[in-house]
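Hey team,

Filing this mostly as a record. A colleague (T.K.) asked me to run one chain through the structure pipeline before their review meeting, and I want the input and output archived in the tracker in case anyone asks later how it was produced. No errors, nothing strange. Just documentation.

Input sequence:
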Amino acid sequence: QVQLVESGGGLVQPGGSLRLSCAISGSVFSFNSMGWYRQAPQADENQRELVALITKGGSSNYGNSVKGRFTISRDNAKNTVYLQMNSLKPEDTAVYYCAGDPSPGLSTDIRDYDYWGQGTQVTVSS
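Output structure:
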């Protein structure tokens, strides 16, 4: 059974940094596209926001609110994707979900992501 296992969330002060990781476990299955969506407090599942996505080949896409502050990377040998988050703001507070899409190409449509992790909480507060 394929599982996406996230780690690295926590509490950080505004302006600080965090690094999230997401690893595929339970299978040698791999995804062409992997990345992160986030769900803000009070938002429901249908309001998850794109954070960043990356393909096996290294093509990436970022949500407008994180461009220039967040960097996504991937280690294909380890089936792991990372999200380096710098200059964090209180509005970055959310549950961050790892997602995977085995299809070719880089889709930013959340409906194409059938595989999800349990989420990791990121709180930015002084």
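Quick notes for T.K.: The chain has a mean pLDDT of 94. The two ends are 40 Å apart (CA to CA).
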